[in-house]
Write a structure and sequence with these properties.
This protein has 198 residues and is α/β, with parallel strands linked by helices. It has 2 domains: 131 residues, 3-Layer(aba) Sandwich (Rossmann fold); 59 residues. It is 48% helix and 17% strand. The chain has 10 helices and 8 strands. Helix 1 crosses helix 4 and helix 7 packs across helix 8. The longest helix is centred in the middle third of the chain and has 16 residues. The radius of gyration is 16 Å and the shape is globular.
Length: 198
């Protein structure tokens, strides 16, 4: 059976501007547990893994920390907004492709903020996105659109092309070093990037 063509998106800081919600909750949570104060510019300039290593957060504690932070910021997340110009792009893509979301955020939050129906929304762990992408590749032939170095890394592990956007979590320089298939600066650039990649 032929695989369906799809464009799969990350949610946080790719579709919706959630950076300052996540950053403020995470900084407070970590400070309460005695970790050094995190700096926004430093966080944006490096990958999530590097930030965690610099803070010396044991990886075995991450699932609990992520669960607690998600729980604490759930209500604030509902006030997040989709980036300007992105909804028309999603609707245009939807005429030709299945649209999905794979996110380390909560699926109900992503669906609420997006406000339009998509083929699927899947949750993944912080560093387990590649496993979800591999499973999806059995059903879909797709490109993934994300904003982080770890999105690019997950796509490489899963054998999926990655379009990286420069308006999200990581800086353009950090993303360039990660070497995505395509790097885009505006939502409308995604349309051409998808045509060139799928």
């Amino acid at each position: 059976m032929a695989r369906k063509a799809a464009v799969v998106f990350d949610f946080d800081n790719t579709i919706a501007n959630t950076f300052h919600i996540v950053f403020s909750h995470t900084r407070r949570f970590l400070q309460e547990r005695g970790y050094p104060t995190i700096n926004e510019a430093d966080v944006r300039a490096q990958g999530m893994r590097e930030t965690i290593q610099e803070l010396r957060i044991p990886f075995w504690k991450l699932p609990y920390y992520v669960w607690r932070i998600k729980k604490e910021m759930k209500e604030d997340m509902k006030s997040a907004h989709v980036y300007a110009g992105l909804l028309p792009v999603l609707k245009k893509l939807q005429k030709k492709y299945s649209i999905g979301i794979v996110t380390s955020n909560r699926a109900d939050v992503a669906s609420h903020v997006l406000g339009m129906s998509v083929a699927f929304v899947r949750e993944s762990s912080l560093f387990g996105k590649h496993k979800i992408l591999k499973k999806l590749s059995r059903t879909y032939s797709f490109v993934y659109v994300g904003d982080e170095v770890r999105d690019v890394e997950a796509c490489k592990k899963a054998g999926v092309p990655c379009i990286a956007v420069t308006w999200g979590y990581n800086t353009k320089e950090a993303l360039e070093q990660a070497k995505p298939a395509v790097l885009v600066d505006t939502p409308k650039d995604i349309l051409e990037a998808v045509r060139a990649t799928l």
